[in-house]
Amino acid sequence: MAKGVNSTFVYILGAMFMLSFVFVFEAMLTVFSRFYSDAIAKKLVHIERKTTRIISKQQEEKIITSNCNLFEGSWVIDDDAIHPLYNTTTCPFIRNIFDCTNRPDRQYLKYKWQPSACNLPRFDGRDVLRKYKGKQIMFIGDSLSLNNYESFLCLLYVSVPGMNYKTKLTNQSVTVIFEDYEVLVTLFNSLFLVDVEVEPNIGRVLKLNSIKNGEIWKQADVLIFNTWLWWTRGKPKQPWDYIEDGGKLVKDMNRITAFKRGLNTWVKWVETQVDPTKTKVFYQGEAGSHHHGEDWGEPGVKGCSNETRPVMGSIYPGGLPLAAQIVKKVLKKMRKKESIFLLDITILSHLRKDGHPANHNGYKGIDCTHFCLSGVPDTWNQLFYASLF
Ligand SMILES: *[C@@H]1O[C@H](CO)[C@@H](O)[C@H](O)[C@H]1NC(C)=O
Ligand SMILES: *[C@@H]1O[C@H](CO)[C@@H](O)[C@H](O)[C@H]1NC(C)=O
Ligand SMILES: *[C@@H]1O[C@H](CO)[C@@H](O)[C@H](O)[C@H]1NC(C)=O
Question: Are 25 and 239 in contact (CB under 8 A)?
Fold first, then answer.
């Protein structure tokens, strides 16, 4: 018993410790991924600047049509002033790292995502709670899943004032149970989706062909996965010592190749292990960090600290990052394409260079990877909601 509690505590401490390195290694990671993405995405460089479009209530009522791509559009000032969708101080789930209450500029809270061909439905938390009564929704991935998860919890929480909830912890997950509706919302920590296991006399092994946690995941009714940030991290902070690739143990390998292998293993797992009549599967697209002004057409700018406005228009000058290109390619090759829905939030998140905590969350260092809550992840969840029903 004492041992169990102890290891839970150690695990949580470990998770927090790893999270803190997100900031430190962000810069390294970006340089690395830029190197690759620049080579591939050179052709995609266009700059389009539009002035902020103000949209009317009538437009708000436009109905979603089935051929509308919700992920293509631009950020506009919300003249109905329903953004932010909740006040940060009223949501008990937001961790300090995402809390931008002390940010002096407030403009970043006033934008809404406007798809080009239709409107995004409002997030209806009660609707989610009713339809998922007795069910479980699970977010699986790294700290960007945590970012998304906490936004989702807040959106549900504010939809029913005074709603009861309790929290359940295991060594790998946290679950919030909204008791009145018997809805379980879980975050399952998994940096790579594939396994990292400690092998006696070897060490920590990243196993590109193995997903043991899948047995737990597939019991849920909705799964939302994400992975990328940790694939390119090097020593001393990489959370593994060896990689197992097709039965062979190697000290290291091309990380992009490793990412592709891991992703393919995950796709195969979904195709063969998940019951599509019970469980819906989503992939949360790469969100994108902002470290180099030349990515958004302002060469010389370093980091996101001074950014208070999104990139206007619907095209991100830096193009689609490598990780997102790989995800799209892998998903396109699937045998059963309908079994995974891509929440294609990459470009819309890249446009929000103003959405990060930067140095406003009370932590040392500058976070240009995660997003403030309330903020951009609330839009991810509006899109998730629209895609779920
Ligand atoms: C959130 O609520 C607090 C306390 O009521 C208030 O001071 C703050 O201005 C609110 N923030 C926003 C963005 O409305
Ligand atoms: C977490 O707990 C499960 C079952 O309780 C156990 O099988 C697993 O090894 C534990 N994982 C870690 C990382 O401690
Ligand atoms: C932000 O702006 C201030 C004042 O103009 C400037 O001193 C600082 O270097 C800028 N910071 C970054 C990261 O560009």
Answer: no
CB of 107 within 6 A of ligand 2: the answer is no
Please tell me the number of the ligand nearest to residue 298's CA. Answer: 3
Domain interval for residue 349: 2-388
Q: Exposed, middle or buried: residue 387 (CB in 10 Å: 0-12, 13-18, 19+)?
A: middle
Burial grade of 288 (CB within 10 A; 0-12, 13-18, 19 or more): buried
pLDDT tens track for 294-346: 999 999 999 999 999 999 999 999 999 999 999 999 999 998 888 999 999 99
Mutate which of 168, 169, 171, 204 to test ligand 2's pocket (most atoms within 8 Å of Cβ)? Answer: 171
pLDDT in tens, 40-50: 333 322 222 22
Q: How many domains, in total, are found in the chain?
A: 1
Ligand 3 lining (C-beta closer than 6 Å): 301-303, 305-306
- The pTM is what? 0.84
Looking at residue 44, the DSSP 8-state letter turns out to be G
| Kind of pairing between the strands at 203-207 and 111-115 | unpaired
Instruction: Express each pLDDT in 90-120 by its tens digit.
Output: 999 999 999 999 999 999 999 999 999 999 9
